[in-house]
Every structure is written in structure tokens, then in C-alpha cells.
Amino acid sequence: MTTSSLSNQPINQNLYETDFYIWIETTIKDLKDGNFTNLDRNNLIEELESMGRSEKREIKNRLIVLLTHLLKWNYQVEQRSQSWLNTIKEQRRQIIFLLEDSPSLKLYYQSILTRCYDLARQDAASETRLSLNTFPLESPFTEDEILTKDYLSD
Fold first, then answer.
1. Quick one: which of 10, 2, 15 has its CA closest to 42?
2. I want to staple 125 with a disulfide (CB 3.0 to 4.6 A). Which of 19, 31, 53, 132 is the partner?
């Protein structure tokens, strides 16, 4: 790298690679102070995009776990346990929190329901050792039932 290209780099860019926490603190201070000259824009953009992906990934993972346990609850009645119930309640709670914090993710949630159900169906078959055909091809749960606090079929 030439000296001129080094001088064009934001001061904070080195911090990103050497001390991430200090980079965050410095970036926050620079933003609050309106000091955009030293702002490490490329890494800031990358981190913000990563945060969005992380939120989506968390919703997807929690939804798969929730749907898997709802299927197990419905199709392995004799194996129902407090542990399954706790998992269902916690996954619902966390998905609801995520959607309350970021209401725009509701569209994403709706868009992944079918794919997540397909994956949950496979997981439920694997975990219960029941045939995949035991579980319906399409979700037996409505969008509302999935997140309704007290919904469990008997």
C-alpha cells in the first residue's frame, strides 16, 4: 500500500482489525460528534448488514425449533414432556420479542414459514424416528397458532 492510500484510510479501520470493542466505541463517538472524516464506513456498513442477517437467522432458527416441537407435541402424544412445553414457550417468546423489536421482520417471518416447516418436518421425523409421511406436507398450524401463547392442540 502506498503512503497516499494509507493516508486516505480512516484511522478507525486499524482498530476494527486489532480491537473490535474499541472500534465500536470510537465509531459511536465519531457518529455522535458528527466526525465523519475518521469514520470507517466500509466496516460499519458490513457490521450493520451483518446485524440484519443475524436477526433473520435467529428468527429462522427459532421458528424451526418451535415448529419441530409443535409437530412432536401433536404426533407423539405419549412422549409429551415439560421440556417440550418449555421449549415451545421459550421459542414463541423469543420470536415475539424479535418481531416486537423489529416489526418489519414480520414480512420475513411470513416469507419463511413454508421453508421452515419443511425443515421442521424433517427434524421431527429424525428426532421421533417416525416416518416423514407421519407429518403433513403442509403445516397444520396457522400463522397465528404458531405464535399464540396458549395454543397447543390436544
1. 10
2. 132
pTM above 0.85, yes or no: no
- Measure the CA–CA gap between 147 and 5, rounded to whole angstroms: 52
- Contact, 38 vs 114, CB < 8 A? no
Q: Is residue 48 part of a domain?
A: no
pLDDT one-digit tens code per residue, 38-84: 889 999 999 999 988 999 999 999 999 999 999 999 999 999 999 99
Answer whether 113's CB lies under 8 Å from 139's CB.
yes
From residue 17, how far is each of 7, 93, 100 by CA, in Å?
Answer: 17, 36, 33
111, 75: one domain = yes
Look at residue 119 and tell me if it is in a domain: yes
Cβ(153)–Cβ(73) below 8 Å: yes
What whole-number distance in Å separates Cα of residue 149 and Cα of residue 92? Answer: 7
Residue 2, judged by CB atoms within 10 A of its CB (0-12, 13-18, 19+), counts as exposed
Under 8 Å between Cβ of 100 and 146: no
